[in-house]
Amino acid sequence: MQFDDDADLDTSEVQDVRGGRVPGGRATIGGGLAGLVALVIGLLFGVGPDQLGLSSGGDEPAAAPSSLAQVQRSCAEGRDANAREDCRTVAVVNSVQAFWTKEFARRGGAYTRSPTVLFGGRVGTACGTATSAVGPFYCPGDRKVYLDLGFFDELRTGFGAGAGPFAQAYVVAHEYGHHVQDLTGALARARDGVTGANSGSVRVELQADCYAGVWARHATTTADSSTGRPLLTSLTDTDIRDALDAAAAVGDDRIQARYQGRVTPETWTHGSARQRQQWFYQGFSSGDTAQCDTFR
């Protein structure tokens, strides 16, 4: 996975609030079994903390915009993305949104860009106050993607996924798949409270995996507005394997086997490891969003 060294990065698409705090704005995830359930669901790439039962109260202050603004200060060009994890996130966000802007236009629509918020510890959102324990998520209330970069260490050490940078890109692209679903109305199908292997929630998550695969297929051919050339210049078979490995690592069956010692398909919310790999690869191999109809 390599970015064009000379491409300009658009840091306006990433809001860096790491390291800042304000008084008040407290929130906790319930303790005991409820807290474990919320943690596991969050680490499965949840849609948003509003679905995890997050509530007010707790002992730690919420994050606020950081005066450090590391992303704005340090992530200017593609060469920065090739050297730094946070800058790589900026580049992936830029690439993903460049693709969806053109894809919506090709289909006669208009794509509304969504920022990614980098936070550490906890963050306030229109969906509630969330901690890093919920993992990366998309909040439909403010149409933003939220990401604590520490999640990628957990993905590798806690879930056994590969450490390659494209595994991280898959996570970001998956969350933007939820933004696309929000714009098209498909995201609402996950909010019926039903779980299980054939539930709307699972179908929404698998479609987001497929959309991530579609982006990956076109990432090295989608031109960047600053140079007229693709921001992502190379993608290898190893990169795709890393994405597939990450998709499998966060399958419901893998998570349940690890955390509760048994697999219960009737409680699935995201799909099995095999399903998640299958739908990412379907998007990648076809490069066609029409092939991502998980509801059919």
Structure overview:
The protein is an alpha+beta fold. The chain has helices spanning 32-43, 70-74, 78-81, 85-106, 151-157, 165-184, 200-218, 237-249, 252-260, 273-286, and strands at residues 2-3, 14-16, 20-21, 27-28, 55-56, 63-64, 116-118, 122-125, 128-131, 137-139, 144-147, 232-234. It has a four-stranded mixed β-sheet. The chain is globular.
Shape: globular
Order of helices and strands: EEEEHEEHHHEEEEEHHHEHHH
What's the rounded overall pLDDT mean? 83
Rg, nearest Å: 18 Å
Q: For the record, give the distance between the C-alpha atoms at the N and C termini, rounded to a whole number.
A: 33 Å
Q: Largest sheet, described in full?
A: 4 strands, mixed
Oligomer: single chain
